[in-house]
Amino acid sequence: MKNILNTIAKYSLLCGTVLLATSCEFEEVIDQDGPSVDGVSVEASKGQLNELVVGVESTTRNGLGVEVSASGTMARELYLFDADPRNTSDLLGKNGTPLDNNSFYSTSQWGGNYRAIKNANLLIDAVNNTSAVNDAERSGYLGYAKTVIAYELIQVLKAYNKARVDVSDPDNLGPLLDFDPAIAAIRVMLNEANGNLQNAGDSFVFSLSDGFEGYDTPSTFSQFNRAAAAVAAVYAGDGAGAITALNASYFDLTGDLTMGPKHTFGLGGNDQANPVFRVPSTDDFPNNGDQIIVHDSWLADAEAGDTRVTSKTAPRPDPTASQDGLTGVNETRLYATNTSEIDMIRNEELILVFAEASILAGALPNAEAALNVIRNQYTIGDFGGATDAASLTSEMLNQRRYSLWSENHRMFDLRRYSLSNTLPIDRAGDQIFNVLPIPLTENL
Predict the structure, then answer these.
(1) Would you state the torsion angle of the CA atoms of residues 210, 213, 217, 222, taken in this order, to the nearest 10 degrees?
(2) Run of H or E including 126
């Protein structure tokens, strides 16, 4: 088993967040045992490049916990009951409180995404300035790095609705782009990366963690690239483009819903645990002080017999226990342990992407068939509603709501379909937010 931190890169970036280029410096001493920034900028060895790859994959996990809890709270999927009152005040706009552009919920995900992006850009720079690899090997590194950058930028757009796409030069950062030009640039990047992967030969010269088992060669990693391209295409409103990308991915209407690359976690030194896992409450400890509470509307709106309700959540021992005037009868069971994997893009999501793409492309029977695959997987039977585009879109969003609960999708889905105003208000004076503020340091 290859855990990320079994071969974790030994270099370090000294910034708190990657884009704070004016307030931090990279280490100038070249590490003779591992790749510092200067140590890999020119004539990096293949071993140093491979350590950079490990570092890139490791940092893609940064910020995942806040990514889920912040967007999930704003989208009324969940409440995070813990010691930080901002989770139940700021994110819900308590008493008219605005979101803070210098608080953890604004800076953590942004910093996490751009740390991974910065590391991938370091890898690109190192690969392009070394003679230690041949052209095919270089293409493999480039295809991997560009795909990761694009994937991370998609997460930025979902949360902030803007992104800096060009951050390769920390002294000359590209502009903050609005959603449409940013997603267009991401799609171009994914296509460039896929072209690199096509020229990378039969195998990579670097290793990925077990989370990429089955997607760890140029041809199979290309399937992940195409999955990301399909997601980006539907976000851009391009149904036909999404279907084309899906057909080159691991999308399979009759396949295992869990197929796809995953973030892996561990408890060893320098590794990290699954940040979304929560220890189940018990009769002896009904209020453990750090729990993800299911929003009651998610339970109330579920169709009878939907097994996602019982597989993803469980009743709280004390459903009356509240925090900040909020409560809920169920709590999370989304992940079984603190080392459970988190999906990056799994086949279940791709089936729902196919349904959405088919609606956009006017292939409504295909959309209905895809939605029925999901519905029957969770024992609620075929869709019995109207089959016009508007009705199927509503059903598609509903299936995304339950299949992708607490996975950083709902807030963005509501925003992109102008449905945020349909969310419930649980306390007088609360507000609906559907986008995180760009961190203060990015607006200097």
Answers:
(1) -110
(2) helix 104-127
User: C-alpha distances in angstroms, 309 versus 228, 257, 302, 329, 408?
Assistant: 27, 17, 8, 12, 17
Supply the range of the domain harboring residue 73. Answer: 4-247
Q: Specify the pTM.
A: 0.92
Residues 394, 67, 434, CA angle at the centre, nearest 5°? 45
Q: How many CA atoms does the CB half-sphere of 352 hold within 13 Å?
A: 23
Rounded-to-integer distance, Cα 59 and Cα 186, Å: 20
Residue 144 placed within a domain: yes
The alpha carbon dihedral of 9, 271, 277, 251 has a sign of positive
Does residue 394 lie within any of the structural domains? no
Distance CA 394, CA 400 (A): 10
β partners of residue 80: 292
Read off the amino acid at residue 70: A
How far CA 422 is from CA of 53, 395, 425, in Å, comes to: 43, 15, 9
Please indicate, yes or no, if residue 432 is contained in any of the structural domains.
no
Per the structure, the count of domains in the chain is 1
| Residue 171 burial class via C-beta count within 10 angstroms: exposed 0-12, middle 13-18, buried 19 and up | exposed
Instruction: Give domain status of residue 361, yes or no.
Output: no
Mind listing the pLDDT tens digit for each residue in 225-284?
999 999 999 999 999 999 999 999 999 999 999 999 999 999 998 899 999 999 999 988
For the domain that residue 119 is a member of, what is the CATH number? 1.25.40
> pLDDT tens digits, residue range 172-211?
999 999 999 999 999 999 999 999 999 999 999 999 999 9
